[in-house]
Specification:
Length: 518
Amino acid sequence: MTATGQAAYQYQPLCKPGQLICGTGQTAVITGWTVKGAIAKRLQSQEFAVIGQLYSPTRGISFLIRNLLANPHVRYLVVVNATKEDRNAGGCDCLLDFFRHGFEAGESDTGRRCWVVSSSIPGYVDFEIAESALEQLRQSMEWFEVKSISEAVHQVQALALQALRDNPKPWGAPLSFPQPPESAVTVLPGPRYGHRIEGKTIAQTWVKIIHRIKTMGTIRPTGYDGQWQELIDLMAIVTDEPAGFYFPEPNYLPCDRPFIEQYISHILDDAPDQEGIQYTYGQRLRSWFGQDQVEQVIQKLIIEIDSARAVMSLWDVRDHAADHSPPCLNHIWLRVTEGELSLTATFRSNDMFAAWPANTMGLRALQEHICSQIASRSPHKLNVGPLITVSQSAHIYDDCWENADQLIQNQYAKICAARDYADPAGSFGVSVQGSKILVEHLTPGAGEVVNCYCGTSASQLYRQISADCPVLQVEHALYLGTELQKAELATTTTFIYEQDKPLRRGSLPGESSPGRLP
């Protein structure tokens, strides 16, 4: 008991304790995308039970509800539904709908049985949690929606005074329930550092990225009460994303067109300082350092179209401070090569499942903006070239593994089936000349011969070619090895070799026509 006679409670979270600020009061504060510390610094610990953020309705509400069930002394809920990010993500609205409208049995987007929040925004609660416990929670808590930090602080303080006066008792005993079964993770051997993935569209490239991480990524703790599967230094190249963006039908991306239309402004446009919001990428590019870096690179390339100095930085040395939330996107380079404007962006940390598609579409919009501005203000006529991201930590959080596995199962084989035989490294012509194998290396497009190889052994030739041309696409290299082996067989038998065709048997001495092997 406190000196006033009011009971003091200590919030004991079962899930994600490292992401929460815990107090001794009876009000839970859900801040959505607003930084939780911006509210905590204006309150005393006895005025609240817990303060935490809610980013995703499909990934966060179930954890939140488990914690509330384990802490029945919490009788009030204040939901800060304040930012544009909250409107886009829908987590706060979905949580409020849980208390307003309830839930029903159904399936998650991965087909797992769960409780589905009765809301226009998809939100899931683990089916392992008893229906009666969820209903008891809904009936036992008084909830409030607020639209600003100041309104949230005022509401929490008012509820603290109300609790001091009424001294409400816990609505029941603490409850805990089994966790859903974890997805099995199988990691195949492969390099941890330095991966290259290329695709025509953002959607296609994303599926390849998710497959690579889930296949070869190292499982590590995140520092946020969970795990992620990670590759280090992953370079993704998008070559032909159309204007206006390609969204597959049905859309398997973790974002849709309305969300992207809102998100693009976070990269293109400046934003005023706002309490509870650390920054936007656009703010870092447009005004953070006292310079409009986007305008700087436009002017730089107009004056010197071949410049290698069209660089923008989002990293601030003050970001090393422990209380800062540094940007994941750190640097952007623009470069013009043969009439194409390419953009390269580096991320220190990249959520490849939930964030990379939106990140990349925002960067593509920036690339298109810079390209059009150069074209409209100068005689330079440019095409939008490839978009490259380099993710130092390319990872998938453990609460997305199930979704990632389903994506791979549904989409990866289809993408691999849409094969592209154009290899930037060129092509190879293989022929048999007597007892020798002749290989000509041809340039893409024009087909000019740039190198010749001659030998009697397939292994000898593929070693020479791999040393001279180590960037061959994997399928192309495997194809070439198959053709060389066929050619070697033809030099030591009566088989006749023609590239891209099955071996056929030639005439033996005394035979009038080719026979067939049994």
